[in-house]
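Lab notes, practical 5.
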Amino acid sequence: MANTKTLSTDERKKAKRTARKKIKTEKPKKTRDYARGSKKRKVKKMVRGQSKR
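Output from the prediction step:
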């Protein structure tokens, strides 16, 4: 992305949005093959404080 120091806030927003869209079309991310958050470690009981975490 170009230097956005000289642009106004609205122009900067537009420039960033277009840059983001450009990246999305050029290098699309691979679709995930698992549910979001499913790989997080689950906490059974929060009662015992930090020793459990």
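Observations recorded by the TA: The chain is about 35% helix and 0% strand. The longest helix spans residues 9-26.
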